[in-house]
Write a structure and sequence with these properties.
Blueprint lengths: L3 E5 L3 H17 L5 E5 L2 H10 L4 E5 L7 H11 L3 E6 L5 H6 L4 E4 L4 H16 L5 E6 L2 E6 L3 E7 L2 E6 L3 E4 L3 H7 L5 E5 L2 E4 L3 E4 L3 E4 L4 E3 L5 H17 L4
Parallel strand pairs: 1-2, 1-3, 3-4, 4-5
Antiparallel strand pairs: 6-7, 8-9, 8-12, 9-10, 11-12, 13-14, 14-15
Length: 242
C-alpha cells in the first residue's frame, strides 16, 4: 500500500506544523510516507490529476477554490482519504457528505493527527488491490500490482513478470516505476524494478527472489537500497506481517 500524502493549506506555518506532526507520528510507527504541500486548492488539483494521493489533509478556508470544492473535484479523478483541517466546525456536515475520514479543528495535536491517520489506514486496507494498466499488442491489460514480482527492460521492451504470467509493453521502466507503490517496489538497478514482498534473501550486491531469480543491485546505490529494504521490513513488522 502506497502512502502518498498531500497537505493543502494557505497558511505556510500550519503546513509546516502538520508536516512535522506527520513525520513524528510516522517515524514512531516506522511508517514511511511521501509528502507534498500545497498553498491552494488549484495547485493541489493540478498535481492530483497527475499523481493521485492516498491521504489528503485539506484546509477549508483558502483563497480561490475552498477546501470543500477542492476535495469534491479531486474525487472525480480518484478516491482519496480526506482529513479536513479548519478553524471552525461549520462545515462538518459537508465533510461527512464527502465521506471524509476525519474533521480536525486547529490547533492540531499529535494525538489527533495520528487518530486521523489510523482511520485512513484502516480504510485503505479494505480497498481492493490496485491495478497497473499497461498497453500491449493485444490492447490494454490490467495487472494487480501486488501480483508483480519484478519488471525488466530489454531492447526497449519492458517485461512485467507476475506470479502467474509475463506481459510485454513499450512503456518505459521510468514511467512504470512512477505508477508503482514506492513502499513495496525498489529500483534495484537501471534495468530492473523488484517487488520487495518477493525477496527471499538480500545480499550485499544482489537479491534472490522467491523462485530463485537473482538480480544484481546498482553498484552506486547499494547502501541506499539496503536502507530502503530495512524500512520496508519495519513497515511489515508494524503491520504484523512478519
Amino acid at each position: 500500500m502506497s502512502l502518498s500524502v498531500a497537505i493543502c493549506d494557505d497558511e505556510k506555518s500550519d503546513c509546516l506544523i502538520l508536516g512535522s506532526l506527520l513525520h513524528s507520528c510516522c517515524s514512531e510507527k516506522c511508517l514511511p510516507i511521501h509528502m507534498e504541500m500545497f498553498s491552494c486548492g488549484e495547485d493541489f488539483l493540478a498535481s492530483h490529476q497527475k499523481h493521485a494521493y492516498d491521504i489528503v489533509f485539506m484546509d477549508i478556508y483558502m483563497a480561490g477554490i475552498n477546501g470543500i470544492e477542492a476535495v469534491r473535484n479531486a474525487c472525480r479523478v480518484s478516491q482519496c482519504q480526506t482529513i479536513f483541517t479548519t478553524t471552525s466546525r461549520e462545515h462538518a456536515l459537508e465533510a461527512i457528505s464527502l465521506n471524509a475520514a476525519h474533521y480536525l479543528v486547529k490547533p492540531l495535536t499529535q494525538n489527533a493527527v495520528w487518530e486521523a491517520m489510523e482511520r485512513c489506514l484502516a480504510r485503505l486496507e479494505r480497498k481492493p488491490s490496485k491495478q497497473l494498466e499497461i498497453k500491449t499488442s493485444q490492447g490494454k491489460v490490467p495487472i494487480p500490482i501486488n501480483s508483480i514480482v519484478y519488471i525488466e527492460v530489454f531492447n526497449k521492451i519492458c517485461f512485467i513478470h507476475t506470479n502467474k504470467n509475463t506481459y510485454q509493453t513499450y512503456s518505459t521502466l521510468d514511467a512504470l516505476f512512477r505508477l508503482l507503490d514506492d513502499i513495496s517496489f525498489m529500483r534495484a538497478q537501471r534495468s530492473f524494478i523488484i517487488n520487495m514482498n518477493f525477496i527471499e534473501a538480500f545480499f550485499f550486491d544482489h537479491v534472490v527472489l522467491k523462485g530463485g531469480k537473482e538480480i544484481m543491485l546498482s553498484r552506486n546505490k547499494r547502501a541506499k537500497l539496503k536502507e530502503q529494504y530495512q524500512q520496508f521490513l519495519f513497515y511489515l513488522a508494524r503491520r504484523g506481517e512478519i
